[in-house]
Design brief:
Helix content: 25-40%
CATH superfamily: Metal-dependent hydrolases
Order of helices and strands: EHEHEHEHHEHEHEHHEHH
Shape: globular
Number of helices: 11
Number of domains: 1
Radius of gyration: 17 Å
CATH class: Alpha Beta
Structural class: alpha/beta
Strand order of the largest sheet: 1-2-3-4-5-6-7-8
Largest sheet: 8 strands, parallel
Strand content: 5-15%
């Protein structure tokens, strides 16, 4: 089985995504105009099936109402039983309502994990204050709650936050944590690369931490996918072959590559004998076998 462990879907008639509908606003990953439209399961699975995939993990993506988004994804999964689909839903882990939200998710068969973004771009972090979550005792308590419920946590952050994240997550060894987008690297050489590499080493030292090889076109927009090689090599060396997981980050990464080109680029950077693990088995063990 091949699994795409990081993608999004959206129906703009069903769920409100404020960030996506800010027309004319440049995002850290570029101009979103081409993806400011419905992106439904039919389009995604056609591309994914053409590359041999038969399952995927939907990741929450900034809906105005995270529970509404989760309910809609559950409906999509129910209507497509021939596609293996689970989801990582949003919950504000600092909120007094967190346990009520998580109780609602317990009634949804597809919800296997939670994501609350910790680090975005520097500008967005300044506006949202999310980079302070790692120092919030309520956030830590929220993560303890989801660990006890058997949910995993998808961690999105930037390299300057990695040391703090390693300290925080070392306190919750029972929580399965998956690092999104290889920790948002910004460089493949120099000081920026060394900062990211050191942070990856700290995070990888935690046995409960895995790493998604995903989202790299957001940071490296060159057509030549060999630019990913130093990043991917570091992830494989640091996390090992059983803790690295492929994700397309579609439709966001469709801004720069079609699905087949993206997959082929990642495959070229990863030794062929590791493909069954990185493109399938590891995602299955992380997201599906826990249900």
């Amino acid at each position: 089985m091949r699994i795409d462990a990081h993608h999004h879907l959206w129906d703009l008639n069903e769920v409100d995504y404020p960030w996506l509908m800010e027309f004319g606003k440049e995002r850290f990953f570029g101009n979103p105009k081409p993806i400011q439209r419905n992106y439904l399961i039919e389009e995604f699975r056609t591309d994914a099936k053409n590359e041999g995939f038969d399952g995927s993990v939907h990741i929450q993506v900034g809906a105005a109402d995270g529970q509404e988004e989760a309910r809609w994804v559950q409906e999509v999964a129910d209507k497509n039983p021939d596609w293996n689909l689970v989801q990582v839903a949003f919950c504000d882990l600092t909120s007094s309502t967190r346990e009520n939200v998580l109780k609602q998710y317990s009634d949804m068969s597809t919800v296997v994990g939670i994501r609350q973004i910790v680090g975005r771009s520097e500008e967005e972090d300044r506006l949202s204050g999310t980079n302070n979550l790692l120092f919030d005792s309520e956030f830590l308590r929220g993560m303890e709650i989801i660990a006890n419920l058997g949910y995993s946590f998808d961690l999105q952050l930037t390299p300057p936050l990695m040391s703090a994240a390693a300290r925080t997550f070392s306190k919750i060894p029972e929580l399965n944590v998956i690092l999104c987008h290889a920790g948002s690297p910004k460089a493949t050489e120099g000081e920026g690369f060394e900062l990211w590499k050191d942070g990856i080493s700290e995070l990888a030292s935690l046995p409960n931490m895995s790493c998604k090889i995903s989202g790299l076109p957001m940071f490296f927009r060159k057509n030549d996918t060999s630019v990913y090689q130093p990043i991917i090599d570091t992830c494989l060396q640091s996390f090992g072959v059983n803790r690295c997981i492929y994700g397309s980050n579609f439709p966001v990464d469709s801004l720069y590559k079609d699905y087949g080109t993206l997959v082929n680029g990642y495959e070229a950077c990863i030794p062929e004998e590791l493909h069954p693990r990185v493109f399938g088995r590891n995602a299955w063990n992380t997201y599906f076998s826990v249900r």
